[in-house]
Design goal:
Layout lengths: L1 H38 L3 H16 L4
Helix pairs in contact: 1-2
Length: about 60
């Protein structure tokens, strides 16, 4: 089980670093809001994070 937790932690850190590199500080804030909202079971916070990430991803197309 510790190996699975270690792999999951590495994946999470890698995802956070990729989002910060690709979308900057705003992407990191969006990912943080989404994560905190899901863990706290707060639909408003998680929705705000999801909308921020969606706007950052869709910005080149707009």
């Amino acid at each position: 089980m510790p190996v699975l937790a270690l792999i999951f932690a590495v994946l999470v850190v890698t995802l956070e670093q990729y989002v910060e590199w690709k979308y900057g500080f705003a992407g990191l804030v969006g990912l943080l809001l989404l994560t905190v909202g899901v863990k706290a079971k707060s639909p408003g916070v998680s929705s705000a994070g999801a909308v921020l990430l969606a706007l950052l991803v869709a910005r080149p197309a707009l």
